[in-house]
Amino acid sequence: MKKFISIFFFLFISLIFCSKKNATESLPNKEIEAPGIVDQNATYETKALYLNLKKMMGKGIMFGHQDDTAYGIDWAYTPLRSDVKEVCGSYPAVYGWDIGDIGNPANLDGVGFDLMKLLIKQAYKRGGINTVSMHIDNPVSGGDAWNVTGAVDQILPGGAKYAEYKKLLDLVADFFTSLKGDNGELIPVIFRPYHEHTGSWFWWGQNNCSKEEFIALWQFTVTYLRDEKNVHNLLYAYSPNGYISNAKYLERYPGDDFVDVFGLDTYNLRNNDQKTEFVRQLNRVVLLAQQRNKIPALTEVGLNKIPINNWWTEFLLKPIKSDSSSKKIVYLLVWRNWTREHHFAPFPGHASVPDFLKFYQDPYTIFEDDLQDMYSY
Ligand code: BMA
């Protein structure tokens, strides 16, 4: 009898132990709902980023810089360097990268893809956000992204370059799925293909393909990456260039099921009229984004060489903060620091540094050092 009781006791304890273990295993491990996201099967970290970006609207604006840790003025490929950090003490919150020339060892601006992957990973580990644009070559003429030979119809299903385009997207998919954090999790990326399509300087631009072709290209690209290639670490950003009407903004909009971020690329902000127009544009983008439950962002902005010393506070931040809608833009990204003739962020010794420090210290701007955890929710 004693033996029987002890066996029974042993079984009872084992049962409790096992059920506990199972309970832990079957916990809804990192499952979250992200209503409205393009990819319902996006990874936990990607959904968390999406939800956190939404939550940030109106709480501050994150500062971003293209190729920030790849090179700067008078340096290149030096581990952990950043012009922005050398000026203000913090890395940016957002990093822009470009995968034009994918399939080659380096991108169109000479950044090696292996290095880019490493820098994306470092940025993610520090809590930063990575966004990737794609200045890809003209698939028909073989010229660069600025070669405006008609090409979009040729890469769509049924077109002569369709198979080649899919091969290119396979490389794009491999790139994104190779981005992994220390625990093997995929690193979320805000993917911004076919930007500034309301201008006509790229082969996918306004005068170089029809509205239907542009929309089909966008939808095909998203669907192929998400459903055929199972890429689940992307948010998709749509970024017309300013200054345009609402109708123009939405003319080639691929639809709510294909866009997560409502962007705007706008330059040449250097006088009062342009400031007024800038606020009007941002206001519109935010309202359009809110109507559709999307995330508004200033996907590219800047003034080459920053020739106005108080540009950061007076031309950029003040206008953004002056309007209750405009201030809901969640991040802004300035372009690359390539040379003394082509740079959009300050570097040590630049005349706009004191003003950039004020911009950095403003409670409304967010750099890496005051960024919340964007990958948990
Ligand atoms: C442009 C310039 C070019 C660069 C391209 C893609 O604005 O900076 O020099 O090749 O972006 O990054």
Provide keyphrases for this structure.
single chain, alpha/beta, TIM Barrel, 11 helices
What do you see in this structure?
The protein has 377 residues and is of the alpha/beta class. It is built from eleven helices and 13 strands. Helix 10 links the parallel strand 11 and strand 12. Helix 10 packs parallel to helix 11. It is globular, with a radius of gyration of 23 Å. The termini are far apart. The N terminus is likely disordered. The protein binds beta-D-mannopyranose. The site of beta-D-mannopyranose has 6 residues, from loops.
**Integer tally of domains:** 1
Tell me the structural class.
Answer: alpha/beta
CATH level-4 homologous superfamily: Glycosidases
Report Rg: 23 Å
CATH level-1 class: Alpha Beta
N- and C-termini, Cα separation = 53 Å
Which ligands are bound? beta-D-mannopyranose
Order of helices and strands: HHEEEHEHEHHEHEHEEHEEHEHE
Task: Please summarize the sheet with the most strands.
Answer: 11 strands, parallel
Mean pLDDT, all residues? 93
Annotation field: number of helices: 11
Give the overall shape, derived from the CA principal axes: globular
Helix content: 25-40%
The total strand number stands at 13
Uncertain runs: 1-28
Strand content: 5-15%
- CATH topology tier name: TIM Barrel
Can you summarize this structure?
The protein has 377 residues and is of the alpha/beta class. The protein contains eleven helices and 13 strands.
How are the secondary structure elements laid out?
Layout: H1 2-25, H2 44-56, E1 61-66, E2 71-72, E3 75-76, H3 83-88, E4 94-98, H4 113-125, E5 129-133, H5 152-155, H6 162-177, E6 189-192, H7 211-228, E7 234-238, H8 246-251, E8 261-262, E9 265-267, H9 272-291, E10 295-296, E11 298-302, H10 311-321, E12 331-334, H11 353-361, E13 365-366
Residues 98, 108-109, 135, 335-336 line the site of beta-D-mannopyranose.
